[in-house]
Queue: 2 jobs
Job 1
Amino acid sequence: MGYVLPLILGFFTASLGITPPGLINMTAAKVSLKEGRTQALIFAAGATLVVLFQTYIAVVFARFIDRNPDVLVLLREIGLGIFMSLTIFFFWQGKKPDVEETKVKFHSKKSRFFFGMLLSALNFFPIPFYVFISVTLASYQYFSFEDLFVWTFVLGSGLGAFFAFYCYIAFFKKMEKRTVFILRNMNYIIGTITAIVSVITIVNVVNYYW
C-alpha cells in the first residue's frame, strides 16, 4: 500500500474529525483573534502533538481488537451503555442555560504550546474515534496494521489535524455565524449522534446473539 494511502487516510480522517466546532479548534480561533496568528499556530502545534500520540495509541488498541474478535463484541456491549448514558447526559445539558465563558490569559509562547497540549490531552474522543475508523477500514482491506502503514497513518493524522486547526485560525471570521449556531446546539447535536450510534450498536449486539 506504500506511503500514499495511509497518509491520505490519516489526513482526511483527522480533518473530518476535527472540523466540527469544539473546544480546541474554537480556542485556536479565539487565540488568533486576540493574540495573533503566530500564537494560535503555536497553540495548534501543541494540540497536534497530542493528537499524534492519541492516534498511535488508538491504532495499537485497534490492532489488538482486530486480532481478538471476542473483545470487539464485549466493547460493543460496554459502548452501548456508555453511548446511552451520553445521549441522556447531552440532551439534559442542552436544556441548561449557556454558561459564561471563562477567560484565561497566557502571555508566553511556551505557555500557549503547553496549553494546546493540555486541552488536547483532556479530549479523549480521538482515541475511540480512531479505533473505530481503523478497525472499519481494516475490515474493508483499506487499512493495514503493519508498522510502516501505522506510522504513516499517524503522520497523516497529525498533518490533517494541524490543517483543520489552521482553517479555523485563518477563516474563523467568515464562518463565525454558522459556528455560533452549532455551538449553541452542540449538546443536542452530539446527543442525536450518540443516540443513532446506540441504535446501531443495539442492532449489532442483537444480530450477534441471534
Job 2
Amino acid sequence: MKNRINIKASRAEDVLGYVPHQLTFHPRESLVLLSMRGSSLGATLRLDLPEAGDDARLAAFAETAVSYLGADTEADGSLVVVYTDATGGAGTEAFAYWPLAVFLEDLLGVAGTPVRGAWAVGPDSFRCVQCRTSPCCPPQGHPAARIKESHVNLEMMLLGSSVSATAGEAAVLARSGALPDAAPAIRARARDLAAGFAGEWEAGGVFMRVLGSWDEAISSGTAEPLVLSVLLASLESDHVRDAVLVLACLDPAAAYYGAVAHGRVDPLRPVPPELMGVLPFDGYLPGSSGPEPGADLFTDILLGSYKPPVERERMTRTSELLGLLHRLAEGAAKPAAGTMLAWLEWAQGRSSLAHAHLQTVLAESPDYRLAGLLESFFGLGTLPAWLRRPPAAAGESPSAAA
C-alpha cells in the first residue's frame, strides 16, 4: 500500500505535484477533481476529458464528475485540474475547456464544495484557469519544472512513492515483483489441483472451503504456499472467479449465498472425500447477519449497481494478492487474475488502470470472454454506484479515482 501524508494545499505546484503520486501515473487529457477539508486534500477523482466544443456534453460530464466527488462527505472545498496538450493559452478565450471549468465551478459551489483553485496543465507549463477573468500568470504560464521541484513531490519521492509515465506502465508495475522461492512447487501443486478438481469447484462443500481460503488470505494479507496453490487452481472456475470479486467487496456470506442463489453452486452435490481432504480450509463460512444474500446482490456487485458502502480496504488487499497470483499463474488462471485486477481497479474508481490491465489480458489471451465484455462495459464511462458514498470503514481515506 502507498504511504499517505497529510498534505496542505499551500501552493499550486504542491497540489499539482501530489496528483500524479495519488494516481500512480502522469495524467493526460484528463480532468482531476480534488476535495478539500479545510486546507488539506481529500479524495481524488480522475476522468478522461470529453471532446471540447459540445457544451451540452461538457455540462453532463461535469454533473457526473461532481456526483462522484460527493463521496467525500467531509469536504468543504474543491480543486480542479485540466490536463491537456491543447491548453491553447489557458485563461484566455482560446482555452477550449473554459465552459467545463464554468460548469464545474457552478455545480461544486451548489454542492457545498466551492472551487478554491483551478489549473490547466500542459506538457511544458501550467497556469490558472481563472486568468481568463483575472490575469495572475505570465503569458507563457509557469514552467512545469516547478511541479517536479515542489516540496510535496520531493517528499512523496522520499517516502518511496513513484510515478509511472502512463497508466499502462503503472498497471505493469502493479503486476510486477519478486516471486516466492517456492514458486515452482506452488505452480506444480496448482496444476495437480486444477486437474483433480476439474468439474468439482461448483460443488457446495468445495466452493465453501475455497472461498474460506480466499477470505483468510485476503484478511491476513499473507498465504502459505499450499493456500496459494489452491487459490491459483480455483481460478480455473469462472464461478469462483466471480464470487471472489463479491467476497473482496463484502464478505464470504454474500459471495457464497449469492452464488448459490445465482445457480452457480450446488450446495447438495456430493464430493469424493479424498478431494475434500486436500483443501487447507476446513471450517465453515460465517452465516449472514440478515436474510441470506440473493442473486440480485451478487449481480449488483459485479455490475457496480450496488449502492451501500463496500469494504475498500478488502479490495486493496485482494488486488495485492491478485498481483502475486498473476505473476505465478499459468494457463487459464493468468487471464482470470489479470481480469480480476482490472475489475478491482474499476471498482475503486481507477478506470485508466482497469483499461491498461484489460489490454494486457487481451494481448495475451484475446479470446478471454470476460475481458472483452469488461472492456466494452468500462468503455461506457460508468463508475460503480458505491463510489458516490463515503468509505465503509471508520477513518478510511477516500480512494483515489483514476
